[in-house]
Amino acid sequence: MSGSDAEGRGATAVRRRRSWLRPVAWGVLALSTVVLVLAGCARATVLNRVFYQAVLDEQGAYERLYDEVLVDPATARVTRDLLGRLPVPEAQVTANLKNVLPPATLRTLVDEQIGHAVGYLRGEEPRLRLSVDLRPVLTNIGSFAEIYLGDLVASAQGRQSPDFAAFARELTAALDDISRGRRPENLPELRLEPTTARQAAEWLMGPVPEDRRADLRPQVEASLGTGDVASALAAVGPYALGDRGPGAAADLSVLTDDGHWNVVPDLAAAGVDLGAAEEARHFTKLALGWVQGIACVLALASGGVLAFTGSASWPVRVRRVGTALAAGGALAAVVLALARWQVGDLMAHPPRSWPPSVRSLLDDVQHGAADALVSVGLITAALPLLAGLALAGAAWAYEKVVARRGARLTGRRRNAVFGTAGGVLVAVAVAGAVLAPLAAGKEARELCLGSESLCDKRYDQVAYLATHNAMSTTADRFIGPLQDPDIVAQLNAGARGLLIDTQTWETPEEVSERLREADFPPDMKEQITRLVERANPPRPGMWLCHAVCRAGAIPLVETLRKIGTWLDEHPGEVVTLIVQDAIDGDQTRQAFRRAGLERLVFTPDADPDRPWPTLGEMIGSGRRLVVFAEQADGPAPWYRNFYRYGMETPFAYTAPEQMNCVPHRGGTGKRLFLLNHFITDMGGSRLDAAVVNKRDFILERARRCEKDRGRPVNFVAVDFATIGDALGAVDTLNRER
């Protein structure tokens, strides 16, 4: 046998041994593409905290929680149990849930838990930690309770205004005495009818052990019979409270970890299986760790084998790479489609005992998440599929068109084509790494007034909750307040329009003149007059007052600074001030300059009929504070007269049935529409606010006025915004738009 024959057979054997390499490389590239697509999809969805918030927003989860779940009669038992220990009527708390737990606070709490869960799944946190910071909620509840307990505490203390710190100290001391069997000295006598005394005694004896009841009952009944409630409580105190009385605050601190609630132990105690999270963590760590790295290396290696080995022409080799990429993308799409088809079996199915509103919300969120995940996965899979088809198509076109004409590539031209093909492959890899996360919202989505959809709405198309006489608050000790929380708390609770009055401190002569025109009741006017007679001198500066600064005042510049700080802390919000101005435009401009707000104020178009920008455009520009005046029009270009741009309804209603839609200041045909929605019957009326601030009442009037005026209502101005559900009505109007 000649040497040349031996060499030929050896080369043939090598080619045979290598013949299996290219099919294997083709399969490895296709499967590696599948792995990379699924891993990229996981990174952009289940391992991306923004993904979860986007799903919650798309399903309207926060609005539905307030508007559907918490008002579902089937949830009444749960909310009643949760609120049973609050010293506030249950109906008042449920009517003010958005103030006790504002949407912004709820979103923050949920986002924190999502962050912990995603960190655990990504292997960044060693254990699943769901810790809710309850301090903002507890603060809101405390402030809310003070509002409703204020008169009661002040009456018990014999004061005009309550001293809650002293009340808390006295209450703690009384509980301490009762827990030790001592009679507290600061509890008043309470005369009871015999039947009522026996019922009270029976209730008080409940915590007492049975073998001690016979000895204690005569003492308890005798004390209650004489009205000595303190002695009766002291008799049963050691059994009812024991050593828990003086340590109640400490116990609560331990329970919540100084305001933090660790949810995981309670979930485990309730029978919730957390093992699925641990199993998912093993998978995600594996997928994002060495599996994804190996898949990337194998994809590059197998692509190199297909592109640079074998005796076939270069179009054939490029076509092999393209078909492998296309097959991998198609296979990944099939896997995702099958997973979506079977996802119903993997979802949590709440018990039938759960309220229907909760089951519906959970079901919609889960299906929304599954649809979003599959959509992102299909977009990601489309990248290698389309790129592969493009490569294969280009190679086929070259063979069918260029090669037939004899214009085969050689030398530098061939190298250029190889370089271009390699560049396309690199572009595919980069596109897969960049576009897949973008498809799921890699960056936090833009929110305007807490909603993504409102970003595309013009300023004059959106409804805003506005607080009438926003500065006149219980919190700031105004006489005859028209709101309860202070201005910052109103913003936290959802107000985005503030109707405020700017004034300078009046002289005694000016007080009398202003009182004649003010809407205070007669007894309040007398009280203010007495204050003036005490020679209370005018205070320099600019103030926010309601009619008369001696009835309550807060400094203008300091309050504007607080509004600016709030806007800085809430970059997705737009706030409007409508100023009843008793100071001139120059003074107002100086106040805004001193407060540092000129950087935030928005300058309306000089033509009131021009369309306004969208909320997204205003937020993007940083100009998110709109300031109108009732009287002035300048000189600052951003300080415009409201009635050039807007119209309103009347505001001097004395009963709910009087509320109408007839034109008032500003006439008709304006782009902005202020709905004055409050009762003024010798001052503000809490009782009437409980009627007119109901969501359905507001919606019925707003829709009627919109039909009459041919323009959407923009500002719904109410008194006592914490009563009723005015914010729910505003949210409904925005959802309908």
TrEMBL record:
<dbReference type="InterPro" id="IPR051057">
    <property type="entry name" value="PI-PLC_domain"/>
</dbReference>
<feature type="transmembrane region" description="Helical">
    <location>
        <begin position="321"/>
        <end position="343"/>
    </location>
</feature>
<dbReference type="Pfam" id="PF26146">
    <property type="entry name" value="PI-PLC_X"/>
</dbReference>
<feature type="transmembrane region" description="Helical">
    <location>
        <begin position="372"/>
        <end position="396"/>
    </location>
</feature>
<keyword id="KW-0812">Transmembrane</keyword>
<feature type="transmembrane region" description="Helical">
    <location>
        <begin position="287"/>
        <end position="309"/>
    </location>
</feature>
<keyword id="KW-1133">Transmembrane helix</keyword>
<feature type="transmembrane region" description="Helical">
    <location>
        <begin position="20"/>
        <end position="39"/>
    </location>
</feature>
<feature type="transmembrane region" description="Helical">
    <location>
        <begin position="417"/>
        <end position="440"/>
    </location>
</feature>
<keyword id="KW-0472">Membrane</keyword>
<dbReference type="InterPro" id="IPR017946">
    <property type="entry name" value="PLC-like_Pdiesterase_TIM-brl"/>
</dbReference>
<protein>
    <recommendedName>
        <fullName>Integral membrane protein</fullName>
    </recommendedName>
</protein>
